[in-house]
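for ur thesis appendix - TRAP transporter large permease. copy paste whatever u need, i formatted it the way the template wanted (i think)
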Amino acid sequence: MELPILLAIITLIVCLTLSVSIGVSIGLCVAVAVIVGDLPVEFLMQKMFSSLDSFPLLAVPFFILAGEIMQKGSMAQALLNISRCLVGHITGGMAHVSVLTCMFYGALSGSSPATVAAVGGIMIPAMKEDGYPEDYATAVNTSAGCLGVMIPPSVPLIIYGTTANVSVGDLFIAGIIPGIFVGIFLMLMSWYLAKKRNYGNLIEKASCRDTFDALNKAKYALLVPIIVLGGIYGGITTPTEAGAIAVIYAFFVEFFILKTLTLKRIIEIFKSAAVTNAAIFIVVATATAFGQLLMIYSVPDLLVDTLSGLVSNKYLLLFVVLIFLIIMGTFMDALANILILTPLLQPLLMSAGIDMTHFGIIMIVACAMGFLTPPVGVNLFVGCGISGMSIERLSYAVLPFLGAMIVALLLLTYIPAISLMLL
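the 3d part is after this line
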C-alpha cells in the first residue's frame, strides 16, 4: 500500500479514536493524502463540490424536512396510537408497539437516530412506567430505530443508489419487505425476552371501534408512504419530486388541517433539518473525495484481486463481505461506509453475478447495525440521552436484538427473493 493511502488511513483511525466527527475525520485524511501524495490542492474542493451536484441527492433534504415536520407535529403520536391498538395486547406489548411504530415512522423520516428520538422519547418513559426494566425498554427502542433507514424512503438508500448508479425507485420498492422482515425478527426477540423474564403488564386488547378511531386519526400519516412510493412505483414522480411532494403534504396537513405548527415550531423545524442536512452532506462530500483517492491509488483493484484469490464461491464471498461490513460499521458512519465501500466492492460483486439492487438492501441492513455498536453507535447515544443509562450497559442490553438482526440479515442475503419479490 502506498504511503499517502497508508497515512490517510492512519489519520482516519486516529481521528475516529479521538471522537472527531466522521465528516471532519474523512476530510482530514483526504487532506493528508493530497499533501503527502503531491496531488493538486484543488482536487479536494472539486470532488467535494461535484459529489453534491446530483439531482437524486436532492431527495435527501426533502425527506429529512418532511420527517422533521411530522415529528414536531402530531403524526408520530397518531402512529403510536394505532400501533398500541394493533399489538399492545400481545406479551411484551409495549415493546411491540415501539417496533411497529418505528416501522411506520421509518416510512416518514428515513433516519435512524431521528426514529429513536421521536419514538423512544415517548415509548421509553411509557415502558418504564408500565413495569418494563430500563435496559430492556431502551434496548428495544434503540434497536427498532434502525428500521428508520431500512424502510423507504431512506436516506442511505438514496446515497447508495446515487453511488452505485442503481435506480433509487427500485431500491425503495425492494426495501419494503426486508424492513418489515427485520422488524418481525425484532418483535420475536422482544416477545421471547418478555415471556422468559416476565416483563411488563398486559394491555387490554383494543376494541374494533378504538382501532378504527386510531386508524382514522392516523390516516394522514399513513398516506405519506402511499403517496411517496405510489408516485415513484407508478412512474408519476422521481424520488426527488416525491420528497418535495412529501414536504408540501406534511406542511399542509400539520399547519392547515391539524393546526399543530406555530411560527416558533416552524423555525425549529428548519433549524433542525438544516443541521441534519449539513452533517450528512459533509460526509457525502468528503467520503466521495476519499473514494476517488482510493481509485487513484488502485485500491479497488487490489481489493478485487485479493478477495478473488481468497474466495471463488459467490455465497462465500457474500459472507466475507457481510463480516467486513459489520466490522466497518463499528468504526464508521453508515453513509461513509456506503460512499467509500460501494465503489470498492461493486466491480467484484458484479463480476460474481450479484444483483446490485439486492446487495443495496444487504448493505443498508448491515450498515444499520453500526448504529448499535460502539464507538460510533449513534442510536446508543440517543437512547442513553433519553433514558440516562450508561453506554456500556445499553451496549450489553442490545446484544439479543443485534443477534436477531444478524439472523434476518443472513436470510436476506441468501434468499434474494425476499428483497426482489416486488420488482
